[in-house]
Amino acid sequence: MTMHKQSTTGGATGRWGLGKLKLLAASMVLAATANAAAPPTAEVNTTGLAVTDDTVNVGILHSVTGTMAISEEGSVQAEILAIEQINAMGGVLGRQIEYIQEDGASDWPTFADRSRKLLRQDNVAAVFGCWTSASRKAVLPIFEQYNGMLYYPTFYEGLEQSPNVIYTGQEATQQILAGLNWVKEEKGAETFYLLGSDYIWPRTSNKIARKHIEDVLGLEVVGEDYFPLGHTQFNSAINRIRLKKPDVIYAIIVGGSNVAFYKQLEAAGIDLTDGKTTLLTISVTEDEILGIGGRNIEGAYAAMKYFQSLDNPNNEAFVKAFKERWGEDSVIGDVTQAAYLGPWLWKAAVEKAGSFDIDKVREASPGIELTTAPEGYVRIHENHHLWSKTRVGRAMANGQYEVVFETDELMEPDPFPEGYQ
Amino acid sequence: MSNFSLKNMMTRQDVLGFLVLAILLLVIMPLSMDIIRLTQFGKYLSFAFVAVGLVLCWGYGGILSLGQGVFYGLGGYALAMFLKLEASSPENTAIQSTPGIPDFMDWNRITELPWFWEPFNSFTFSVLAILIVPTIFAYFIGFAMFKRRVGGVYFAIITQAISAILTILIIGQQGYTGGVNGITDLRTLLGWNIRSDYASYVFYFVCVALLFVCLFIAQFITKSKLGRILVAMRGQEDRVRFSGYDVANFKIFVFCVGAAFAAVGGAMFTLQEKFMSPSFVGIVPSIEMVIFCAVGGRLSILGAVYGAIVVNVAKTYFGESFPELWLFAMGALFIGVVLAFPDGLAGVYQKYCAPTVDRFLDKAPVFKRYSGDSSYSPSEPAKAS
Amino acid sequence: MFSDYTATELGSIFAMQGFAGLILFAVFLLMALGLAIIFGQMGVINMAHGEFMILGAYMTYLTSNLFAEYLPGLFDAYFFVAIVVAFLASAALGAFVEWAMIRRLYHRPLDTLLATWGLSLLMQQSYRSIFGAREVGVRIPDWMAGSFPVTDIVELPINGLIVMIIAISVTFGVYLLMFKSSWGRRVRAVVQNRPMAGAVGINTVKVDRMTFALGCGIAGIAGSAFTMIGSTGPSAGQQYIVDTFLVVVFGGAASLLGTVASAFSISQAQSTMEFFLGGSMAKVLTLMTVVIILMVRPQGLFTLKVRK
């Protein structure tokens, strides 16, 4: 018994030892180029966060193992890239960012555990992390209790607005409404078939979609179907779809099910490229296409705020830097870009506040804008979500999206949309 | 069992084992860990409840259940439902379209508390439900299967299917269950803030105390006539049946006890983590719970506690340091325990440490009155006095 | 819900729905056949069955890449090679696992369950380390994609047809092997009375190893076939466990005919319910029905031995 006890604390000291070493190394480097402009620590950190004269600690909390690791990998890479770029530019308030990475292991209680460690033991100034709604819901009470700051990258179902979270992905209405409007105008769609994996995000999103289709657009929903996560047999569902002959299949299927769904859709003779049936999804980014295979999903449309193929100088630089750092083969999906925004938004807020204190960062956050965002221009709303554009992309055989539409204006985030609940 | 005494129930090795565990859990751990680690440790202990139950079912009864997560989940959910209702007072949920119901129901456009949630407004009912609901459920499963003499392997597969069904149900019926998110954001217990450090300490000690209650019950069962019948059954079921015992009833009983233990563990988890999620109900966690028991030694109730602790500590340690190695380590652990150490940690202890400890105990005055019989071997019926 | 449609439309839909059920039947049959041999004939609970299937899927992936790289002209035919490769790789690994692990555990069936679960974790992490955590997309030749139009509305998915052909061939092959070959006779002899089979000169050790390898090899073929309809990822195998075991147990463990019948009834039930109720509820109801039937009739549909 004593043995395992030692191994726990031994592990902990080991980690701390390493951290100290890193701190030491960093401070030695910095001592040479001491940044005279850096304000004293006592001033910028009044609440005992892990901030020294030269460094500030932040946390990265994603699943590196388990079923979600596939999806979250890109977010980790984007966050690390952003932190490294910020450090290369001189850091935040003259301090180099050091990140402590924890593994949520695709397990919500583990996320809660690790977030408690990051906030209470490591006293990090901000956490970039979480992916699924379930993991966010699990850590939310902890961030509120210990007053931490979480930058959450995934597009999600909305119905939430925490003072301790900045949502850098789109909430449901931002992602859904413009896409549906587009499909009505552009494709003349009149009937819709809603599909989803069976959990909160697809169900809530479809609820909003249905309201919008029926009440706002005055069109018809002819069917709605849900499948257990991991489901791989869609032939019966596809038959139902064929029976109803909808103009638009609105699909919010996630994970491995996607692969099976698109393969079987194609095999069932529903050809997305022939223009007869439009498939609009909000769950398939470039990341997912890697697994689905570009050919199987060619011709489908996705409504997101970001596609790797976006043509603007910010994005060009971002894609180039990302590939240099993580390999030529890497692809960048919507969430990866949103994760990349996290450290930059935090940096801007800290600098505006002139302090790392969570309360001051929170106060400074609304109105923060980023002109260098790969997706273009974003701004933090009072409700802690981002103003951003919605775009529609058409999937191509090479696994990329071709942007066919983007909203003229930034879409206002509306996590508690009236009339949609 | 009329003149039942401590001496019949516990060998001096057992007494020593209980003492060491008590000192470890009540003194050493709380003193050496900060509250975060201690709560984490308390969470591991909640799995120890399941492991102890599995020692009874599997080690003694020969019933391998791959559905213990179901009972752990039911216990955890029962308490979480109560706490969630308390956290969803109309004042706290004023921004919802229907104040006074849990937030996830509101998101799913449910406007009225479902009937099966109503009783969970009562604390007494909820506490009883933690014990009774899983036990009744276990009774039905056990009754249907053991009365028809379903064999061990079939039982394992069917319990596994049941845990799969329950997971899909919980995730699919999210308006009533919180879905894949589980039941989160629990705040108070009868008005008392459960998020404070003080509350965490209290819950840890409550958890340890309940664990000891379960351990004593388990010890009693294994050392009673019932325990001996179970062991006999495991070896030669037919002979026990021919001797006039109703084998099925014993199996049902021990399965229900295991389920109740697991449910208490689940409730302890809810208290300490302040939420409950379907990720404990499925197949993978249920099988992991079996490995806690196997690592500890499937015949040793104290071993089960250590098994749960060791595996979970290893999981956390590897998870923090070498996440990619964790599955390899876990896989190797399964195979290694089965192939090389079928009796787990307890077996290792029996073989290498017990004789030394015995010699030492012979000299210790406290243990003098326990003379003679010290060889603890659960596969042999204890001597009747 | 049918009032809006013409009779032809309904007829076509039912035809296609029947076909969807048959595809699901083929999928279940392929999943379960290997396990039926291992579990039914040997009494070994192989929890790593899904991972053996995924091994077959990865082998198919590798083969397709090799063909695309070195023999692009023959790409259309790679799938036949891939099936053989998948079978051999899974069977070889199966034989090794039997030698290293399973043979020590024949008298402890519940322990094989734990050990093979451990094995499944090892295999999953190996896939993750070798092929990456991401799902891989297996490119299928053009002639195997798309559908085969029968009438205006009725279109039969070609990959579904192929899966069915594979399932039928494998079933037929297993039948020949088990009931018409001398090897099959030896396997059945060992199942019925091991000491006696040994006494009359059957090498029971070898029979065990070959049987286990055969079961794993069939799992490999199943995995290879599933690349056409499903996903190939490190932990995709776990999705199949419950379904597979239920099919085998429901059929009656020692009966091949039972496995076929059970795969058929479960797949038809699930696919019909899916059509009317949607995916999630259909799954729950199917599993629940099977479990309840098994509680009432634990020996399954067909059985050779009553009571364990």
Task: Give the CA-based shape of chain B.
Answer: globular
**How does the helix and strand content of chain B classify structurally?**
mainly alpha
Unreliable stretches of chain C, pLDDT < 50, 5 or more residues? Answer: none
- By DSSP, the count of extended strands of chain B is 2
* Overall helicity of chain C: over 70%
Mean pLDDT of chain C equals 84
| Mean pLDDT across residues of chain B | 85
Secondary-structure element sequence of chain B?
Answer: HHHHHHHHEEHHHHHHHH
Greatest contact pair?
A-B, 45 and 48 residues
Give the tally of β-strands of chain C.
Answer: 2
Q: Gap between N and C termini of chain C, in Å?
A: 47 Å
Tally of helical runs of chain C = 11
Number of helices of chain B: 16
Question: What keywords describe this structure?
Answer:
heterotrimer, A: 421 residues, alpha/beta, Rossmann fold, five-stranded parallel sheet, 15 strands, disordered N terminus, B: 385 residues, mainly alpha, two-stranded antiparallel ribbon, 16 helices, 2 strands, 70% helix, globular, disordered C terminus, amino-acid transport (chain C)
Give the SSE map.
The complex is a heterotrimer of chains A (421), B (385) and C (308).
Chain A: H1 2-32, H2 41-44, E1 55-62, H3 69-88, E2 96-103, H4 108-121, E3 127-129, H5 133-145, E4 150-152, E5 165-167, H6 172-187, E6 191-197, H7 200-216, E7 220-227, H8 235-244, E8 248-252, H9 256-267, E9 278-281, H10 286-292, H11 294-297, E10 301-304, H12 313-326, H13 334-353, H14 358-364, E11 369-373, E12 376-380, E13 386-387, E14 391-395, E15 401-406
Parallel strand pairs in A: 1-2, 1-3, 3-4, 4-5, 6-7, 6-8, 8-9, 9-10
Antiparallel strand pairs in A: 10-14, 11-12, 12-13, 14-15
Chain B: H1 6-9, H2 12-32, H3 35-60, H4 68-87, H5 103-107, H6 123-146, H7 152-172, H8 174-177, E1 188-189, E2 192-193, H9 197-223, H10 225-235, H11 237-242, H12 247-273, H13 283-296, H14 301-321, H15 323-339, H16 344-363
Antiparallel strand pairs in B: 1-2
Helix pairs in contact in B: 2-9, 3-9, 3-12, 3-13, 3-14, 4-6, 4-12, 6-12, 9-10, 9-12, 13-14, 13-16, 14-15
Chain C: H1 7-42, H2 49-70, H3 78-100, H4 109-131, E1 147-149, E2 155-157, H5 158-180, H6 182-192, H7 194-199, H8 204-226, H9 241-251, H10 256-277, H11 279-296
Antiparallel strand pairs in C: 1-2
